[in-house]
Amino acid sequence: MDKAEFVVVANRLPVDHVTDPDGEVTWGRSPGGLVTALEPVMRQADGAWVGWVGQPDLELEPMEIDGMSLVPVRLSTEDVELYYEGFSNDTIWPLYHDVIAEPRYRRVWWEAYQRVNRRFADAAADVAAEGAIVWVQDYQLQLVPQMLREARPDLTIGYFHHIPFPAYGLYSQLPWRRQVLEGLLGADVIGFQRVADAGNFARAVRRQLRFETKASGITVPNGDGTTRSALAKAFPISIDASSYIELAQRADVKARAAEIRESLGNPKRILLGVDRLDYTKGIRHRMKAYGELLDDGALSVEDVTLVQVASPSRERVAAYIQLREEIELTVGRINGDHDTMDHTAIRYLHQAYPREEMVALYLAADVMLVTALRDGMNLVAKEYVASRVDNRGVLLLSEFAGAADELGSAIRINPHDIGGLKESIMRAVTMPAAEQGRRMRALRRRVLEHTVADWSRDFLEALAVFHDKREESR
Ligand code: GDG
């Protein structure tokens, strides 16, 4: 395989299983926001994408899909259990989301995390051309920047952190807090969702490593008496807004939205939640508030229905198994108390849907509930806004989601405040069309003027400064 001038390293490759008409299983591109944003860069720069295909124990050769070179990294069943489900999703994920669930610190998980990060770093080092730009994605790969820097000082390395970076008081619980910071500091540019995340990171670096930080700059010692500088800064991620607008304008999608409303018994208002089934998303909090409004008689199931899509996620991790049980118990109780033969309180869907169906749901929803207890960004909020080409609909948005920094015209909520959440839901279901329009137009302006393409361009421009400096000094 040819060497690449631009390399993306992510836990997952952007591919899914496809079964041919003759029954043969191959791989096809899975269209996520990140691939869409990076595709132009990948094509232009002979890009390669290093990642796992999502199934254990598969040894695959590098492949070309739609002009992208994909470099599969093999994970064994044990790696998946220890590195992915263990350290990534049962240590880092809960710790970085403010300990909503209790993080578990296991030394065997940490060993596996180091081992697997090394494998990703080796694969990236193998495929990267001299002086290439490498962009590492997310919390599963925090050690890769330093590993790469040591193996390949010629590379320019970026890292983007999709989830929150916690306050120092929490971060300092991590038994390997120094190693993780050093791992990240192998990058030239370390990107975060919010200004606050970048601030938390800089503080952890000052407290733990005693490195100097100034505005977004960090002075990193090279170990030989010299130093280099790194940039730690907010680059809020976004969506491919035009693809949502296109779907929202399609006749079949609009017809489907009408059909959804019809099949729910034509309620006056549809409330919608769309989340991976994850304890960070505040699904129980929104159900509690909604259930109490039904109990109080402030809402009735003839008038209002809550549709909750909870797409299956991390189903082998204990905290997720427990969460699913709690939520399904809650749904059963609320529906049992309030359903009629024709109307349901909560239409709960533990399923994943195609994008067309998601946009039809966004179009059908009068109120979108984003009640995350902690969330790096929350793209669902932005997708809802982009889809509302009619400038109607109300977004309730948790202040603990990164999106709250940008979407000031949403109704801001604190999901822990159930009383306040109930008031906000009532305000949303009774909001006059004119106010909906005013707010939605302002929200749409922001989402349309800052798309995922702007996000990747801004990040790569910051990285290019380091690349150019390195080229000059060669
Ligand atoms: C992490 C951070 C950050 C969900 N169900 C279905 C489906 N989805 C899609 C949504 C959205 C995406 O999944 C979820 O993105 P979020 O941003 O809401 O949340 P996380 O999965 O937790 O993502 C987050 C993000 O990374 C990006 O940096 O914003 O804070 O936690 O696009 O639409 N899509 C389809 N069917 C489903 O059933 N097609």
- Give the proportion of residues in helices: 40-55%
Rg over CA atoms: 23 Å
SS-derived structural category: alpha/beta
Hey, roughly how much beta strand do the residues contain? 15-25%
Q: Which stretches of 5+ consecutive residues score pLDDT under 50?
A: none
Summarize the structure in words:
There is one protein chain. This protein is of the alpha/beta class and 474 residues long. It has 16 helices and 18 strands. The strands form 3 sheets. Strands 5-6-4-1-7-8-9-12-11-10 form a 10-stranded mixed β-sheet, with helices on both faces. Strands 15-14-13-16-17-18 form a 6-stranded parallel β-sheet, sandwiched between helices. The chain has a two-stranded antiparallel sheet with strand order 2-3. A hairpin with a 2-residue loop joins β10 and β11. α6 (177-184) crosses α7 and α8 (241-249) crosses α13 (379-387). The two termini are 26 Å apart. The model has no long low-confidence stretch (mean pLDDT 95). The site of GDP-alpha-D-glucose has 19 residues, from β13, β14, α12 and α13.
